[in-house]
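Backbones bend. To wit:
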Amino acid sequence: MTQSKPNKRGGKVRRWIEGLLLSVGLLLLGVWGGVQLASMLSQAWENRSFDLKKQQAPAPAASKTRAPKRGDVLGRLSIPRLGLSSMVWEGDDEGILSLAVGHIPGTSLPGQAGNVAVAAHRDTIFRALRNIKKDDVIHFETMNGTHDYEVDSIDLVMPDDVSVLKPGKRPQLTLVTCYPFYYVGSAPQRFIVSAHELPAGREAVELTPAIVHAAKKAERDSDRATRSGAGPQSSELFTRAASFEFSSGHGGDVVPGIFVEISSASEGHADGWVWVTPDRHSIQFKNQAAGEPLIFYQNGERRELVLSGVSGSYVRGALFFGPE
């Protein structure tokens, strides 16, 4: 009898400790879930607000002269191949990084010379960076236009190595997050993605078989129209091309004056619209098939939009346009 009392007392203590640990675990899980929910709601609100502002004023707005303040929305960063998309706020403290990608104060802004540096947590928004590759394209949409970057290198550095934030010889973008991605506690290294800015309205385009087929088909159609006395000469077509890649639900300026947005996408087909300036008219397309040209006019000149690759997460294509 005398030995059973300590056993009972020990059992009560163990159950009390187990209950305490369970309560702490549930509390931490609730806190984590609350942070995730807050981030998701904040992202949804800011995305919609940003899209509405761009729809109301699709032409590039005048550049701001004042430096951004903490919490200002600078734009939206996306990497279509990884399915990554997040609003970018000014600031890199925990309050910012728990909700969005943060622009590191003191570094350049999109459209400026120098190094645009942004950071995010490895276990939330930037988790997808573990799969990033050289030559991946990164989009940074702002109210002044979209800036495209191409990944040059992926490196690991120590937390106190700030040399990665220094400006290079050409405009660039640097993504910063902690590493390893699945490390528990304060991560010992930093994962750095360096990318250079692509020229606006770049003419380089991957001429996939689908695009080549669509171009030849459009030229044949134009030749038939010319013989019947209507339509432009085929020699006036396809002297230039600009490629694009947008994740579903997003868009941007393909070339100055032509803004494309993808509303939804499925395998081989996409819905969306094209906004044309200075004509200030829009063209809506539904169930547009990859490889089939969407023909429209800007200032009386023929333009053709061809989707070369369509999946449920991204749309890739090219805009063909004639001589200026």
